[in-house]
Amino acid sequence: MSNPTYIIESNRMCEQAGMNPHEISSPKHYLNETEFEIKRKSYNEILSVVSFFSNKLLNSLKGTPILVVVSDAEGYLLSIEGDETIKSTSDQFGIKLGAQFTLKDTGTNVVSLSLQQMHPISIIGEQHYHSSLHEIACYGTAFHNKEENDLLGSISIMMPIWFQNPLYLSMLVQVVDSIERELLLRKQNRKLNIMNQIMLKRTRNGIVITDEHGITTEFNEFAERISNNSRESVIGRNICESPLTGDYFKQVLREGKTFNNEELKFKDAEGNQLVCLFDAQPIFENGKMVGAFGQFRDITNRYQMQEEYNYLAYHDDLTNLPNRRYINKEIETVIHQIDEGQKRKMALLFLDLDRFKIINDNFGHSYGDELLHKVSDRLASCLGENDTLARMGGDEFIFLLTDFDSPEYAIKKAEEILELFHHPFVVNNKELHTTASIGVAVYPDSPLSMEKLLVYADNAMYQAKVQGKNRFVVHTSELSDEMIAESVLEMELRHAIEHNEFVLHYQPQIHNVSGKLIGFEALIRWQHPRLGLLAPGHFIKLAEENGLITQIGEWVVNEACLQNKKWQDAGMTPVKMSVNLSTQQFLTRNLISFVEEVLERTGLDPKYLVVEITENMAMEYNYSILVLKQLKELGVGISIDDFGTGYSSLNYLKNFPIDYIKIDKSFVSELMKSENDAIIVVAIITLAHNLDLDVIAEGVETEEQLDFLKSHNCDITQGFLFSKPLPAAEIENVYL
Description:
- This protein is of the alpha+beta class.
- Helix content is 44%, strand content 24%.
- It is built from 27 helices and 27 strands.
- The strands form 5 sheets. It has an 8-stranded mixed barrel with strand order 18-19-21-22-23-24-25-26. Strands 2-1-5-4-3 form a 5-stranded antiparallel β-sheet, with helices on both faces. A 5-stranded antiparallel β-sheet has the order 7-6-10-9-8.
- The chain is elongated.
């Protein structure tokens, strides 16, 4: 069999170099003692691993004269182990510690070729160039860093040729494979250990590691900081003795339990509260528990922030009282406990301040806010042991009363609250007076939802408002029936808008001097499919409360203009048509554009439309004067309705571009019975004429009333004396 290529090439190189095959070529370079020690030290771990496995190889070949030689990547011999007889023989070939074997110096040799060929090799007998080695069999291979494939060195075995066996090469390959794996494992373990140290040192978590008996083996810097215990004082102690985490670790070590996100609270060295999430789990190796791992995550800042968020979410930022969300949750909790059979009692007192809007409008929101703050303080002063006070929003407050002896407690509490408002509230050195309307709802014997109970209390409060304010009303089943009827009516009102169930009736306005018809007031009626024809008193207030009034008001304006133009086109003498604007409609930002659009669409001359507003609408002076001037620019007439019953300033009246003042029928009805009412009527007429305005008296029902009004130069009269409001068809029969 021919020699391998690497042997042929190596021997040819020896010939070309002029080496004498019968003379031994010894190494030319040796490490001195210091260099050798440095080299050995740098290869210490490698040599310890190689020594372990080469010894195993030697033990397996015990009795065989064999030599095991280890070199570094440059061919320097770092270890020589084996049979003493062959060691003495090898000395003559220069095989000594610190010697460097190279092809250039020593010719064909197993160390150099193993490093050069990078694969297992064998040089047996006459394959050697030098004849003195023809009685030697050598096997060798390089070993590497498996992770980066770096050459580390070589391992070779030498023996007398008669002991040669190809199996030795396979054994050597297995040994080298084991060496490379062990070196890789050690390197990875070192990396892992470094990473663990970095993790333990730099992590923002506290780490505790114990052995299987609970003895602490690792306690990192962050754990020291959290627990205020030094590492030295903890390492070696049994973690199960810890008052904070001992019980957790006992269960981990004895039962194999795992804990996640356990919330722990404790004090630091300065006495500040710390909050941590704690995890603990067993550590297993080959299926056997060998210890426990614990981890602390400091969530103090997050916890405090969450506490603050929770407070803000459940408290009113103006008064610091619990808010609607909080009280709703509390009510639901009590109801749930009652439903589960717990013997609990509950009542709600729903409170709304009277005249708060007027205070806000006249003094400003800063005064209103300060008033609410002072009201909340005063209300809190009468809280009982089991009472909770919350602000529902705006000027609404609610008392939650629980676990009282008798329902009479809720009544007494309502009376006590009303008494709190007998004295004024001082805000910025001003005395502000307000009262409260209170609705009382006691949780009944039968189950009831939180929403329903609140509705009962709110409805009772609304009734207190209707009955005159500054009082309380207790919810009853009769009140529920009334409110249910109102709710049904509200649904039907929405239906009425969608299905055009409204009609207009028209009441004539007569000039007192000429006796001629000069105008109509358009008055809405609801042709209810179930209840018949309903006057405005049955539904206008409801429409204002649920926001439908603007939609209804726009329908009135459109229908009145359309009807007036229709009559004019049919030949009726043109007269003015008056329509009432609600407060919400007057404050609507698109009022001017809406009126302009209706006049253009219907073709009605603007001078035949009069809009009626109340004094209260004019309280927003800057807004009101702007809107009234814009209406005036359109050519529309303007009338102040119900004059004498509102709050407007006479100075405002002087500046408003109005055409008519309308005397409220409450003054007219008492005209012949009350001297004061007569004086007021005369004063209104005089005032209006001095301002160059016409006066309309409404609600005139007798000749005596008419004669009085004429005698004092009232311009226009409207009332049952002439005609009640009539549908369009009847107006046409009389006037067309």
